[in-house]
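User: Please fill in residues for this 327-position structure.
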């Protein structure tokens, strides 16, 4: 298991390097000029040239990329913001708790809605519950998150006046953004839960459990759901990573001062270090979440843990026989 974790961590390095290469290329091809965004279009050419030299924008892109990698590896430096003149890492860490609360609160909402909906749809296949659940799931997958957020804001904040329209100054302010982000993710979780449960409930051991007279709740939750967990956990893990990126639109709709709002402001201002640092940080979180999901498989399914243990036991006799042969 430890060797597998180390191997996966090493595999993250080329992935993150590829993310940096792509984001550097996109910022270079993106129309607009950071110098003009900072000084304005009416600034003297001498001032523009001086600022471009100061920011290192006159260097070729491969030189800037090389300097960025060296600073990242040796100092953990994601650059300095063009606008605030502050380290990008510090600004990201200041906004990360807000985005993390939104993302993890939303995934809890998604699990509480999606998993029971998927289980009910599988147990009551082709019934009205199944049909209604899958229609809701289809709506959740197809509906843009920002549009759903605007509809919920219009209903609960404007017409009913029971929830705030924006901001998270009190706990009520988290409800609409979490429900908006969680509902769309719940649709994916419900569909995967349904398909995974349907596959498991058709297995022979489920029929054997029913033949023995076990209660239906114990069969569904104790046998079927437990063996259907791996696809569900995979989907939940991917949703956690996508929520950190997908929360950009929701944070802007509800005026939440998180990482998403920070990245949108950086894009509008052509603040390249903030854009690159934000995307790179999200890629790291996404990779770590996927790693944790893979590790959780061994604790969910004992067969996977047994596979690692068998591999470990096989290597010991080989080492012992090799030592005996050498003697």
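Assistant: Residues filled in for all 327 positions:
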């Amino acid at each position: 298991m430890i060797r597998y974790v180390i191997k996966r961590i090493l595999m993250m390095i080329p992935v993150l390097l590829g993310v940096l290469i792509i984001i550097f290329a996109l910022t270079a091809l993106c129309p607009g000029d950071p110098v003009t965004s900072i000084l304005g279009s009416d600034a003297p050419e001498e001032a523009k040239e001086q600022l471009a030299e100061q920011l290192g924008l006159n260097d070729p892109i491969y030189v800037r990329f090389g300097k960025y990698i060296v600073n990242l590896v040796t100092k953990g430096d994601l650059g300095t913001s063009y606008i605030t003149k502050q380290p990008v890492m510090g600004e990201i860490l200041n906004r990360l708790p807000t985005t993390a609360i939104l993302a993890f609160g939303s995934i809890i909402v998604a699990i509480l809605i999606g998993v029971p909906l998927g289980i009910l749809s599988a147990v009551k296949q082709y019934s009205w519950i199944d049909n209604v659940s899958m229609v809701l799931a289809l709506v959740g997958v197809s509906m843009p998150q920002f549009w759903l957020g605007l509809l919920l804001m219009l209903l609960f904040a404007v017409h009913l006046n029971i929830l705030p329209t924006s901001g998270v100054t009190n706990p009520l302010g988290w409800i609409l953004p979490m429900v908006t982000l969680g509902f769309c993710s719940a649709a994916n979780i419900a569909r995967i839960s349904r398909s995974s449960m349907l596959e498991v409930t058709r297995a022979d051991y489920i029929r054997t459990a029913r033949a023995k007279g076990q209660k239906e709740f114990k069969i569904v939750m104790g046998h079927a759901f437990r063996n259907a967990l791996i696809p569900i956990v995979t989907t939940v893990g991917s949703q956690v990573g996508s929520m950190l990126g997908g929360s950009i639109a929701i944070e802007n709709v509800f005026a939440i001062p998180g990482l998403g709002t920070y990245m949108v402001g950086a894009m509008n201002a052509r603040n390249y270090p903030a854009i690159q640092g934000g995307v790179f940080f999200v890629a790291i979180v996404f990779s770590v979440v996927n790693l944790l999901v893979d590790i959780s498989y061994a604790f969910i399914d004992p067969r996977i843990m047994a596979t690692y243990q068998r591999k470990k036991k096989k290597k010991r006799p080989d080492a012992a026989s090799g030592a005996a042969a050498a003697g």
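For context: Residues 100-261 form a domain with the MetI-like fold fold (CATH 1.10.3720.10).
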